[in-house]
Amino acid sequence: MSNDFTSVLVENRVFKPSPEFSKKARISSMAQYKKLYAESIKTPDKFWAREASELTWQTKWKKVLDWKAPFAKWFVGGKINVSENCVDRHLLTHRKNKAAIIWEGEPGEQRTLTYQQLHTEVCRFANVLKAHGVKSKDRVLIYMPMVPEAAIAMLACARIGAVHNVVFGGFSSTSIKDRLDDSQAKVVITADGGYRRGSVVPLKKNVDEALKDTPDVKCVLVLKRTGQETEMKEGRDFWWGDEVKKVKTTCPAKAFDSEHPLFLLYTSGSTGKPKGILHTSGGYLTGTYCTSKYVFDLRDDDIYWCTADVGWITGHSYIVYGPLANGATIVMYEGAPNFPEPDRFWDIIERLKVTILYTAPTAIRAFIKWGDEWVKKHDLSSLRLLGSVGEPINPEAWMWYHKMIGGGRCPIVDTFWQTETGAIMISPLPGATPCKPGTATLPFFGIDAAILDEDGKEVKANEGGKLVVRKPWPSMLRNIYGDTERYKSAYWGTYKGIYLAGDGARRDKDGNFWIVGRLDDVLNVSGHRLGTAEVESALVSHPAVAEAAVVGRPDEIKGQAVVAFVTLKEGQTASPELTKALKNHVGSAIGAIAKPDDIRYAAALPKTRSGKIMRRLLKEICSGGKIKGDTTTLEDLNVVAALSAGTKDDD
Ligand code: PRX
């Protein structure tokens, strides 16, 4: 790879994979990529059938795809067990005693589970679930720290056909309750606590709070992680450690239909209610297996580390299902990147000899801020490939990642995808694609991505438009749980039979996709999706608030910061105490990531004559810019003048 950063313009810097990297890679040239891509688009059934047949099917499918837009069935008639594919099948190979998970706790403990050991743990826990009455298609909520048991719980659900719903450990009890209500889960899996930046997150306590008005939950299985005092409700709460002692260490991997539901994962949209994205078995596993294989070019001797939390889709697809289906060795780390010092990641990479690192631009920007000296203390020469996910990576962060972490020698795969897509959609292939900092480059095999204008026509090079996918793909979402109408309108209602990603994008003359950002009222805070409507409804649930409008402001580390414009009820006055109380209120309604960075008080919010809040104006105000564009539909121009003059109220 070229090491010359300074002499070229940002847009023109191109980094080709080194001949040594390409030589060993599965896809080793652009010619090979183009040929296979063309084939995969022309005859997608053939491409996906070949990939799926590398998995273990208990009954082979009869038909690859049944597509009645917008409903897809993949590998129709096929029967598969996802857990068997991620665990059991490796026991029949040289991977039997290979490390599946190398785990490090935040306080520093380490544990390694071989595939054989993982198999025993998954079987035991699957038997525990069965003993507590969990049946095929039952929903199970998982609220865990980043410990191997989180993956074990997911795989145990998959083994018996139960549908897991992982809730990120940073979410609040209200978020747990909302998801329990929506998914009608009857069993919760949690831990007493987890470590984060030296303190204990009281996970079980949050679950208890959520369960106060949720009588349908009959069983809570609790892993002892931190050992702090934990209340256990007789007859409802059981310790993981006690329960696994009572059951057998084997559990048959029953065959499930290829379209059997695998999991629900809630994500933000443009309303106040998060959507329960439904993924199913055979197609999802084919997509995550195949993308892990080609995008990370996984090898048996790789030590692969994805730093996401299992509570997000990245943790599902690229910690658990994709890499384990490939028989990879994965690293799992429990805690914060700056505990006890800002070099924890580099220390882990050096000690565990990590070869592939997959992380997020927001983390990279934080590392840049913490200073190069933390990186330079460590030998990162084991790394051979880097990945980025969650938001567009700004060229400055890309260059730093490439130079400081990758030593100028590691390709960077900037992977664009979504909770809904299940697997990577647009990304370089590390042995083939020339990379330009800031672009996710080209579509993955079988992904017919395009950019359309309002009329549904494909835009010309460098023109902006809406990012879409024109053909179904195996790991696509199948529905929004309990809301088929929303599924149809949110993703398939704009262009008939075409998937709308919700992002704006353009393609350069070489065909590279540059993702500009969300077109809807969804923010991207530290690589996590957050609906402005969710934060607004949390704010107006506070007794002092009459109305709230939330917008994003560009932020150096987080990508976007949350700014809330708030009007107060009669008799209420703004104060630093109220600001603090409102921030905490949002924190306890959703989770710490949703806490507004700024709260600005206003006598009124700018609205159109039909009463719609004009967010564009608010965005311009909080970005410090002048009000541009059309304000003719605005009801009261004085409101804008007052807001622009108003000072922001930080605490
Ligand atoms: O806006 C895009 C952005 O993250 C959104 C999806 O968020 P979520 O479902 O939480 O999944 C994140 C992890 C896959 C997208 O609509 N996004 C994700 N990856 C990229 C990205 N934007 C630009 N470049 C990326 N590599």
CATH superfamily of the largest domain: ANL, N-terminal domain
The end-to-end span amounts to 46 Å
State mean pLDDT (0 to 100 scale).
Answer: 93
Number of domain modules: 3
Order of adjacent strands in the largest pleated sheet: 12-11-8-6-7-14-15-23
Structural class: alpha/beta
Low-confidence region ranges: 1-10, 647-651
Under CATH at level 1, the class of the largest domain stands as Alpha Beta
| CATH architecture descriptor of the largest domain | 3-Layer(aba) Sandwich
**Total count of helical runs of at least 4 residues:** 20
> What fraction of residues sit in β-strands?
15-25%
Number of strands: 30
Q: What ligands are attached or bound here? A: adenosine-5'-monophosphate-propyl ester
Helix content estimate:
25-40%
What's the main sheet like?
A: 8 strands, mixed
Rg measurement, Å: 24 Å
How does the overall form come out from the CA principal axes? globular
CATH topology (level 3) name of the largest domain? Rossmann fold
Topology record:
Elements: H1 19-24, H2 30-42, H3 44-52, E1 63-68, E2 71-76, E3 79-80, H4 82-91, E4 99-104, E5 110-114, H5 115-131, E6 139-143, H6 148-160, E7 163-166, H7 173-183, E8 187-191, E9 194-196, E10 199-201, H8 203-211, E11 219-223, E12 237-239, H9 240-245, E13 256-257, E14 261-267, E15 275-280, H10 282-295, E16 303-306, H11 313-325, E17 329-333, H12 344-352, E18 356-359, H13 361-370, H14 372-376, E19 385-389, H15 395-405, E20 412-415, E21 449-452, E22 465-469, E23 479-480, H16 484-492, E24 499-507, E25 513-518, E26 522-525, E27 528-531, H17 532-540, E28 545-555, E29 559-568, H18 576-589, E30 598-601, H19 615-622, H20 637-645
Parallel strand pairs: 4-17, 6-7, 6-8, 7-14, 8-11, 11-12, 16-17, 16-18, 18-19, 19-20, 29-30
Antiparallel strand pairs: 1-2, 3-13, 4-5, 9-10, 14-15, 15-23, 21-22, 22-24, 24-25, 26-27, 28-29
Helix pairs in contact: 2-3, 4-5, 4-6, 4-11, 5-6, 7-8, 10-11, 13-15
